[in-house]
TrEMBL record:
<dbReference type="InterPro" id="IPR011335">
    <property type="entry name" value="Restrct_endonuc-II-like"/>
</dbReference>
<dbReference type="GO" id="GO:0004519">
    <property type="term" value="F:endonuclease activity"/>
</dbReference>
<protein>
    <submittedName>
        <fullName>Uma2 family endonuclease</fullName>
    </submittedName>
</protein>
<keyword id="KW-0540">Nuclease</keyword>
<keyword id="KW-0378">Hydrolase</keyword>
<keyword id="KW-0255">Endonuclease</keyword>
<dbReference type="InterPro" id="IPR008538">
    <property type="entry name" value="Uma2"/>
</dbReference>
<feature type="domain" description="Putative restriction endonuclease">
    <location>
        <begin position="26"/>
        <end position="187"/>
    </location>
</feature>
<dbReference type="Pfam" id="PF05685">
    <property type="entry name" value="Uma2"/>
</dbReference>
<dbReference type="InterPro" id="IPR012296">
    <property type="entry name" value="Nuclease_put_TT1808"/>
</dbReference>
Amino acid sequence: MSAARDYELPEDYEWPRPPAGGWLADDLDTLPNLPPHTELIDGSLVFMRPQTTFHMRTMRLLENSLLDQAPEHLDVFREFSVELDVRNRPEPDVLVVPTGADTGPKRTFLRPVDVVLAVEVVSDESRDRDREVKPRKYAAAGVPHFWRVEENEGLPVVYVYELDPALKAYVPTGIHHRTLKLDVPYPLEIDLTAIDRRRTSR
């Protein structure tokens, strides 16, 4: 049986209290003792619960597959934050970015213009954010491609969206079971049943 936590908070510890108007994106780099993978949504800090095995394995499958098949001018990031505006800095599970987006080893976030594809793997505690809040914000910021990944009988199902630039909204282009085969953002094919394999094969 595991303990509630494997560390003790100081008796005088206080959770961060938001200033008037909420936190700003830059605060994520300066606030002390934030849990890993803290996000900022509408000026509020969002703390992540421990991820499930499905979530971890799905991220690994997508990251490895996207990177294996990416053209030379694109790279793949995992769990890296994107500063959409001064009050929103979410952390997509997987990102496809231009290779030039990596401007140095100290960088802690990307801009929306740096993002080609944002992927969110839905979990119980993040369902509303991943299905409604984040896609709306990614679209408004101009991120051209978005995938939402859901679990069905232990396998990932990928809902694919493409940005309508005139409306600044996503248009669904397909629901993919077992195999994900697309021409955009680049030609790729992913065996979604390979979630439990340690290595992907093309």
